[in-house]
Design a protein that fits this description.
Strand order of the largest sheet: 6-7-8-1-9-13-12-11-10
Helix content: 40-55%
Oligomer: single chain
Low-confidence stretches: 30-35, 48-52
Number of strands: 17
Shape: globular
Length: 505
């Protein structure tokens, strides 16, 4: 389920023969220019990489409205002769970087995902149709792939010290298959009505386009897009070129297009900052009792600071002095214990430090990352482990789940659910008020109600929480259950196999 990966080989002096080989056998000059589509602009401020190339400069032509990038890139066809992968030597930071899509490297297209398929001997249908099972298996697959990548592409000519090899970025992806192109595009329109729960309207991190949606932070990027549209714009042309060069239908373009048209693709880009965040909060010294105790104090103080910030924000908005004083009396700032404040400061410094995730680490590095002690240094290197990959997988699965659209229950169903809830709970839901809200919801989504300010912000979130108690969420936006696509790989595997989408060797 891995797509794009950025691999950095550190210590150019140690790997000078590999660097020399890349410079001699990869084509491309040090600098290129290219025009890029409008929707790709969102990525520019978040990463120095775009379409596998290292961005040097960017500018907008005010007269034509076009967007231009300058980039550095060296590229070479993989051993199968159907996909260019990229390399970039950064002498200032002492690393050689490889950047490419793993399924494109392997299959020539990411319509096929990096997972086991029906034609492979270890494929078990009951297991490999499960999204979670494939993600669990992906760690072992990608580790084997990386080692084989160096072996295949460089013929084992140069010994690679894997303690110098860093995973700087990794993308996870999933292709959800629908019965028709029309259903896929309609489902995407419904998904646009679902806002990611942590996004804010005043932050320019959520974007919608005709056939895609995107959510970008400095740590990660989330995308859902119609694969057929993207394939037609980009890879289809490349496949035609390769077919012409090889003098045969190496790629079955029409079949690929038909399947891609029925696909919505989910992608999460985990930048090094996100890998650091997940590692620091969920993997780093997780079995150390001293660290766990200090982490609990850290989270406690973080919660207090957040609450005090909300109080301060509210006070700032209250202009009337008497109202402000009254609010302050009922919402006093929470005092922080000086000892806990000290622990919080130390932990924040420790957890916020940048990391490098290596394929191999020695005992001393492992010791630093496993147990709390009085270290006289900070070790920025850590193992790119199965535990870290598992946290990436959890995040990815939650993203997919969050954007699954559900049927909107009928008015009578909601009424019955409220009654059932009130019969089994001491704290009752206000049925009359909720049914009035739900009447408005028949012609509006939750987001539209919020945007139109039909209720105050506090009241809106109160109703949102109440409806969640009876299983009605922002995802319930379809009036009729006419579109269905399972969140697994059953349709994917049967479709790929029956259409024989693998290229003709």
């Amino acid at each position: 389920m891995v797509d794009t990966i950025v691999i950095r080989v550190h210590d150019l002096r140690k790997h000078h023969e590999l660097v020399k080989y890349v410079n001699m056998n990869f084509k491309g000059t040090s600098k290129h220019s290219a025009e890029i589509p409008k929707e790709a602009i969102e990525e520019l401020g978040k990463s120095p990489l775009l379409d596998d190339k290292f961005i040097v400069d960017y500018f907008r032509n005010s007269k034509t409205g076009t967007h231009i990038i300058h980039y550095k890139s060296q590229e070479r066809l993989n051993t199968s002769g159907h996909y260019y992968f990229h390399a970039f030597e950064n002498r200032d930071r002492d690393f050689l970087e490889f950047n490419f899509s793993v399924p494109k490297y392997k299959w020539g297209t990411n319509i096929l995902v990096f997972a086991r398929h029906m034609w492979e001997k270890d494929f078990i249908y009951s297991n490999h149709t499960s999204l979670k099972y494939n993600l669990d298996e992906s760690f072992g697959l990608i580790m084997s792939f990386i080692k084989n990548f160096f072996l295949k592409e460089f013929m084992d000519l140069f010994p690679i010290d894997f303690s110098c090899v860093e995973i700087n970025r990794i993308d996870l992806s999933y292709n959800q298959l629908f019965e028709t192109k029309k259903q896929a595009l309609e489902y995407l329109e419904y998904q646009k009505q679902i806002r990611r729960k942590h996004s804010r309207n005043d932050v320019n991190n959520f974007r919608e386009y005709e056939t895609s949606l995107m959510y970008i932070t400095h740590r990660y990027s989330l995308k859902i897009y119609h694969k057929g549209t993207e394939y037609r714009k980009h890879d289809r042309k490349e496949h035609r070129r390769i077919n012409k060069e090889k003098g045969k239908e190496y790629f079955r373009i029409d079949q690929l297009q038909e399947v891609a048209d029925r696909m919505l693709r989910y992608e999460v880009t985990f930048r090094d900052t996100m890998l650091t965040y997940l590692y620091s909060n969920y993997v780093f010294r997780k079995n150390c009792p001293i660290h766990k105790a200090r982490y609990e104090i850290y989270k406690k103080v973080e919660g207090i600071i957040a609450k005090n910030d909300r109080i301060a924000e509210k006070l700032h908005k209250i202009l009337d002095q008497k109202r402000k004083e009254k609010y302050q009396q009922t919402h006093p700032y929470i005092e922080i214990d000086p000892r806990e404040k000290r622990v919080h400061a130390e932990m924040k410094k420790l957890l916020s430090r940048g990391r490098q995730f290596m394929l191999k680490v020695d005992e001393n590095i492992d010791q630093f990352n496993s147990k709390a002690a009085k270290y006289g240094y900070f070790e920025e290197r850590a193992l790119f482990s199965k535990a870290l990959f598992r946290e990436c997988s959890k995040f990815f699965l939650n993203f997919i789940k969050e954007f699954q659209v559900k049927e909107k229950p009928s008015v009578s169903t909601v009424s019955d659910r409220i009654d059932q809830y009130n019969e089994t709970h001491r704290s009752k839901l206000p049925k009359k008020e909720m049914m009035k809200f739900y009447e408005i919801l028949q012609t509006n989504t939750f987001e539209e109600i919020k945007r139109k300010r039909l209720y105050s912000k506090a009241t809106y979130y109160r109703y949102l929480k109440r409806f969640e108690e009876i299983g009605v969420t922002k995802n319930n936006v379809i009036d009729l259950d006419l579109i269905y696509a399972s969140v697994d790989l059953r349709s994917y595997h049967t479709t790929i196999f029956s259409n024989r989408l693998i290229f003709n060797k």
